[in-house]
């Protein structure tokens, strides 16, 4: 019986093939590697932004490195061009497959629209290195795990996340770290903490959070801005401490069941009286 000869690819040819792959990667503005499309930093060429997942599955673990580049951000891919430049679609925008995502350590930015309307996403784990993120209109999102230092929840970050029921915000968030409309339209939100670092509830932060019944604000809250709790129709109890000094006239518009709890003689009591909102004095104040 004849022996079948086994042919081995010479090392020289293999090296040439690898060199060609590297050359092709370096000559293109977009690169492909193991199911992802990414772009490199045009200045140092050391970091990468993943812009597209080519073969999404129900669980996705975003890598921290890709083809010898450190992954710094998640973004969107080019779909066309107009007079103002490239048109992009978010990496997971309108995706209906992915349910769980783990973002690896080292990734710092999740750009706007990256997850916009990722309608099946239920759970996401963020790294301690994250600085910017947005999950607008992720209507199935229920679990968000902050794994460390989050300084800011940017404007509209969770807007329209209608399945989100509870969220624990890290204690080291910046004093104005919950931005405009961050939780607007979170219609299932029932429980959320406001860390003591926070000094302002910004415009429309909790507007249309129709399941929110009670909330204890930070002891250091100084201002509650325009429409902050607009149309929170089930809101019955909010505790406002005595550092509050400015509350917008329509901060609680549509909150017909609301009673404000606070310190006797405080600005919160004055505001409640001026706006015909029931006020109850806090019996015990915990320092």
Automatic annotation (TrEMBL):
It comes from the Bacteria. The lineage of its organism: Bacteria, Bacillati, Bacillota, Clostridia, Eubacteriales. It comes from Ruminococcus bromii. It holds the Pfam family LRR_5. Transmembrane segments: none annotated. This is Leucine-rich repeat domain-containing protein. InterPro entries: LRR_5, LRR_dom_sf, Surface_bspA-like.
């Amino acid at each position: 019986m004849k022996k079948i000869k086994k042919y081995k690819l010479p090392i020289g040819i293999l090296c040439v093939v690898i060199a060609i792959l590297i050359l092709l990667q370096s000559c293109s503005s977009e690169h492909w590697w193991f199911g992802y499309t990414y772009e490199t930093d045009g200045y140092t060429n050391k970091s990468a932004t993943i812009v597209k997942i080519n073969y999404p599955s129900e669980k996705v673990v975003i890598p921290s490195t890709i083809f010898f580049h450190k992954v710094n951000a998640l973004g969107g891919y080019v779909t066309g061009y107009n007079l103002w430049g490239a048109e992009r679609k978010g990496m997971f925008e309108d995706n209906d497959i992915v349910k769980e995502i783990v973002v690896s350590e080292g990734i710092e930015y999740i750009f706007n629209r990256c997850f916009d309307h990722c309608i099946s996403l239920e759970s996401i784990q963020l790294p301690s290195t994250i600085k910017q993120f947005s999950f607008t209109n992720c209507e199935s999102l229920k679990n968000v795990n902050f794994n460390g230092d989050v300084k800011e929840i940017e404007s509209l970050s969770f807007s329209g996340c209608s399945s989100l029921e509870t969220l624990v915000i890290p204690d080291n968030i910046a004093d104005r770290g919950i931005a405009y409309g961050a939780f607007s339209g979170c219609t299932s939100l029932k429980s959320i903490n406001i860390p003591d670092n926070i000094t302002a509830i910004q415009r429309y932060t909790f507007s249309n959070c129709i399941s929110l019944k009670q909330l204890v604000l930070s002891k250091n809250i100084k201002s509650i801005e325009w429409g902050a709790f607009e149309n929170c129709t089930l809101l019955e109890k909010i505790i406002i401490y005595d550092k509050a000094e400015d509350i917008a006239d329509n901060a609680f518009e549509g909150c017909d069941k609301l009673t404000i709890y606070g310190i006797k003689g405080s600005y919160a009591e004055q505001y409640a009286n001026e706006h015909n909102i029931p006020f109850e004095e806090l019996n015990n104040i915990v320092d």
